[in-house]
Write a structure and sequence with these properties.
The protein is an alpha+beta fold and about 190 residues long. It is about 40% helix and about 25% strand. The chain is globular.
Length: about 190
């Protein structure tokens, strides 16, 4: 049985577990050129997670996936320069941090954004991704939103199929080619 929990409802000591930070920071692979591989992303973002913007899926007491969301210009990560400078040096750290901030700020145009979703490989094809999408949409409704948006990488047909299956529809293609994503929208109802 899958249990989905808002990260801020976990006890503080559970929020500090390295495997949870590793799971949540494992997304944003499309920005690897700015924020590095999974381990680097964990060092950059692992201590700045806004747990009230993360839903976690637990199966038999183990975290098996998460979905993060963004609204009111606040997402799952605090934007902090110091980890970037410590990781990449004074100049490159500032440049990479600026690029990451631009990517984050670009998403402010969405009232409610499904920011990222990840299910561990061992737990895939068991409905956890759909349960997380539905829980995220329910979170949007609770917060008073009538629509949820997301961006899916153009080369991720599996994710696109998951979102289409869960009521999202593709929006028109953008005229800006970077980042290589397609926007999707789902209109929400009170019983979503």
């Amino acid at each position: 049985m899958v249990k989905i929990v808002l990260g801020s409802e976990l006890p503080a000591e559970e929020q500090l577990q390295p495997q949870l930070a590793h799971l949540v920071t494992g997304g944003r692979g499309s920005l690897a050129f700015l924020i590095g591989d999974n381990d680097c992303r964990e060092r950059l973002l692992g201590r700045s997670i806004h747990w009230d913007r993360v839903l976690l899926a637990f199966e038999d007491g183990e975290a098996s996936g998460y979905v993060a969301f963004k609204h009111h210009r606040r997402g799952p990560f605090a934007l902090r320069l110091q980890p970037f400078v410590a990781e990449f040096g004074w100049l490159m750290g500032r440049l990479r941090f600026a690029g990451f901030c631009l990517s984050e700020w670009r998403e402010w145009r969405y009232p409610f954004l499904l920011y990222g979703l990840r299910v561990s490989k061992a737990a895939r094809n068991q409905g956890i991704g759909s349960a997380l999408v539905q829980a995220c949409c329910a979170q949007a409704v609770t917060a008073g939103f009538k629509e949820a948006y997301l961006e899916v990488p153009l080369d991720n047909a599996r994710a696109r199929a998951l979102y289409l299956h869960n009521g999202f529809r593709l929006l028109r293609k953008r005229w800006v080619p970077w980042p290589p994503v397609r926007s999707m929208l789902r209109r929400l109802e009170r019983n979503a």
